[in-house]
Amino acid sequence: MLRKMKTKLWAIGLMVLTTLLTSSAQIFYKIGADKLEYNLLSLFTDYFLLIGIFLYAIGAVLMLIAFKGGELSVLYPVIATSYIWVGLLSSYFFSDSLNYLRWIGISSIFFGVVFVGFGSRNKEKEKIVDTI
C-alpha cells in the first residue's frame, strides 16, 4: 500500500527548476533546428541539440528526485509552468510576440498551478479536522 505524504517545499522547488531546464532545452532545440541540415549525422554533431538533450536529462533526474518528496497530483501540474517559461524565453530570444491573448493564457496557467497547490493544502487541513 502506498503511503500518503505531504508535499515538501523543496520538491516543488525542484519541479520549478526542472521546468526551467526543460524550457531552456526547448530554446536550444529551436536554435539547433533552425541550423539543422537534413542528415542523420547533423543530429549528433549540432551542439545546440546536444545541450538541449543534456538539459532534458538533468530535468528528468531532478523530477525523479522531486517525486520522492511529495504527491504526484501536486508536483506534476507544476510542469505546466513550462508553457510560461517557453513563452517568455521565446519572446526574448526569438522576438515572438506576446499579445494579450497569450498573456491571458500565461496567467491562466499560473493561477491554475497555484490553485492546484492550494487545493492540496485544503485537503490536508480537512484531514486534520476530521481526525480531531
Order of helices and strands: HHHHHH
Main sheet summary = none
User: How many β-strand runs?
Assistant: 0
The shape is flat
Q: Taking all residues together, what is the mean pLDDT?
A: 86
Tally the helices: what do you get?
6
Assign the structural class, choosing from mainly alpha, mainly beta, alpha/beta, alpha+beta, or little secondary structure. Answer: mainly alpha
Q: Termini, distance in Å?
A: 24 Å
Helix content: over 70%
What's the Cα radius of gyration?
18 Å
Strand content: under 5%
Residue runs with pLDDT of under 50 for 5 or more positions: none
Number of domains: 1
Provide the fold topology.
Layout: H1 9-35, H2 40-45, H3 47-67, H4 72-75, H5 81-94, H6 100-131
Q: Can you describe what's shown?
A:
This protein has helices at residues 9-35, 40-45, 47-67, 72-75, 81-94, 100-131. Helix content is 79%, strand content 0%. With 132 residues, the protein is an all-alpha fold. The chain contains six helices and no strands. It has one domain (9-131). The chain is flat.
